[in-house]
Amino acid sequence: MTGGAEVVSKPYVLYGHQTWRWYGKYLRDPISCFLEAREIYGPVGGLGNPLPFLKDGRQHVMAFGAVPNRIVFGQPDLFRPGGQVLRGPRESAQRRMRRSIFAMHGAEHDRHRRIMQPPLSRLAVASYAPAIAGLIDQVLDRWEVGKPIDAYHEMLTLSNWIAAHLLFGEADFERSLAICMLIRDWITLDVDVRTLHLRPTVPGTRVRRLLRHAEKLEAAMRQLIEEKRSAGAPGNDLLSQLIRAHGDKDFAMSDDELVAHSAILHGASFLTTASTLAWAMYLLAQNPSVAAELDREVASKLTSWPPATGEIEAMPLLDAVLKETLRLLPPVHHTFRTVAAPTDALGLPLQRDDRVIMSAFMTHREPSVYPDPDVFDPSRWARSKPGPYDYIPFSAGPRLCLGFAFATLEMKMILARIVQRYRLALVPGSKIDVIYRLTLCPSAGVPMTVEPRDGAYSTAPVSGNILKLVRHGRPGL
Ligand code: HEM
User: Fold this and answer.
1) C-alpha dihedral sign at 140, 146, 152, 153
2) Is the CB of 407 under 6 A from ligand 1?
3) Looking at residue 254, what is its pLDDT?
4) Interval between CA 268 and ligand 1 midpoint (Å)
């Protein structure tokens, strides 16, 4: 067995029928499942095979907090991500599309990360700012004062446009958008099939639709790659940059890899940013003093649009609001790792193929790191700086989110521009329920009214499980 120097204190282990309740609860509502399991048993424990008479059942471990995060995220070859999409039959487009960076390990993963890093580096990302600024205004121009919007829907549209621009370019923007819609539908179908626990080897309408859709998407992507390549791939978009890297033998990617990476990058980027932004808009609307302070910060620091170099980075409250939103409602609520070899690194015996569930949501509610963890309090970021494994909305360790710099710039620009142009108020009486569906998102949107930027910030009464998950109350910095 490979071990870990840090031992997790007193992990619990449940067996057989004792685990049924927790597996059922997890499938219905992972948010409540984690909160309750943590409360009753503690931060780390195993749910054994629920059907012990079946030999190949695997154990699932829930491991919440900085210590297990460091052990698991710090050893990506022992605790491997399993790929984000369903494994299709051999030789299927679905199987090929699964082979993205998310499913790679070891040297192969390192090489692909090195190839994808330059176009997503902090320096490169700054060059996308003018294009992002234009797209933000295109969406915000459609809003009318006095009219309702669904903040989540608007942010889905905007982040989809920005992802289309970043990944496939503006030269034929309609086409870039059409491919993004194909990717979005593919991911939605994939999640549906996984939620219903259908196997692609078992024929069924939904599975067939998924496999057919994967073929359609793959064909559209291949054609786009072919056309870009024969035109010399001159664009600044990510796909063109990766195609151009093809000439270099160390940086060459196959077409299958280009297709898989592009599809999963779109999925990884647009749903996560849309959910975060919708939550930030909700939290600002319910915290008038923070919203008013942010309004003042934007008024004094954002002097041009697109923002001048360094302007967005020089807004501490904007930074704190985003960090606090990602702390309280991290879009990637939890992730899985598969154990590659027997180990007791987490303080309990784990076998190959056991799975570990890691949760940003639970990590971010550790009271010793975040006093009053349920309270939206951007000012906490001026008082303390949590360690890299205490704050993991973008994961941690060698597989930290590659889009971190891009997502941060994009989300800050969007929030700053909204505050600069409008005041958004929640529609009183709205029901705001948080669900986990690929990301932690509002189940029925976030209904808001567009108001003039008049500084008249005030809260609105709402219902829904958001009230159990987030409390309001502190001023800004
Ligand atoms: C709010 C926005 C975002 C959040 C919260 C987020 C979060 C995450 C998390 C938690 C992971 C690790 C997943 C796991 O280990 O299972 C991840 C990985 C990744 N993300 Fe993001 N992400 C965001 C936006 C983006 C964007 C905009 C891009 C690209 C343009 C991107 C590209 C990636 C890639 C390529 C990986 C895989 C890295 C690897 O395995 O080495 N993400 N992200």
Assistant:
1) negative
2) yes
3) 87
4) 6
CA angle 105, 76, 260 (to 5 degrees): 35
CATH superfamily of 12-469: Cytochrome P450 (1.10.630.10)
Domain boundaries, the chain: 12-469
Q: Is 401 annotated as a binding residue?
A: yes
Cis peptide before 378 (omega within 30 of 0): no
* CB of 399 sitting under 6 A from ligand 1: yes
- Return the SS3 of 301: helix
CA-based torsion, 62, 58, 8, 77: positive or negative:
negative
Angle among Cα 409, 171, 143 to the nearest 5 degrees reads 55
339 CA distance to ligand 1 middle (Å): 21
Averaged over 341-366, what is the pLDDT?
A: 94
* Any atom of ligand 1 within 6 Å of the Cβ of 394: yes
Closest CA to ligand 1's atom 29: 403
Quick: pLDDT tens for 180-190.
999 999 988 88
Determine the pLDDT at residue 276.
98
Residue 334: beta bridge partners?
A: 359
Q: Is 289 helix (H, G, I), strand (E, B) or coil?
A: helix
332 within ligand 1 shell (Cβ under 6 A): yes
Closest ligand 1 atom to Cα of 73: 15
pLDDT in tens, 238-276: 899 888 876 666 667 888 999 999 888 888 888 999 999
pLDDT digits (tens, 9 = 90+) for 79-133: 998 767 788 888 899 999 888 898 899 999 998 999 899 889 988 899 999 999 9
